[in-house]
Amino acid sequence: MKLSPGERSILAYFPSSGRARRAVEELKAAGYTAVSLDRVSRFGVEEDAEIDYPLAGMGQTVSGLTLYSTGAAGGDFRVLRAADPSASGYGAVGYGTAGGHAFLVTVVTGEEGVERAVEILKRHGATV
Fold it and tell me: Which domains does the chain have, with CATH numbers?
């Protein structure tokens, strides 16, 4: 993304999707329009409501619920993803993605909106 003159981008990382979503909602209510929420993953992210929904997706994939990956890239990768400590929990002490902050909120605003946006993000637990 190329910023226009006078625009700034703010990258904020969150430990949970709930906190990130609440921050996004407050930012939008405060008038920020260029706000996005993404998940950072070493495997890439494939969101599929049918697979990632716990009740409907039972038995279809182990990695869908924990790693947000349905395995569309190929069946061989699903085995490795399912063996990842974040899927099994085995040996997961101190293990995580993006320093334990796998949810990224990006805000694009003018110089005048930076301070207020950072205040909102930090109030919801972001590392900015």
Answer: 1-40+99-128 (3.30.70.2750), 45-96 (no CATH)
Please state, in angstroms and rounded to a whole number, the distance separating the CA atoms of residues 37 and 33: 12
Q: Which amino acid is at 93?
A: V
Q: What is the model's pTM?
A: 0.64
Return d(Cα 100, Cα 78) in angstroms, integer.
Answer: 22
User: Per residue in 102-115, pLDDT tens?
Assistant: 789 999 999 999 99
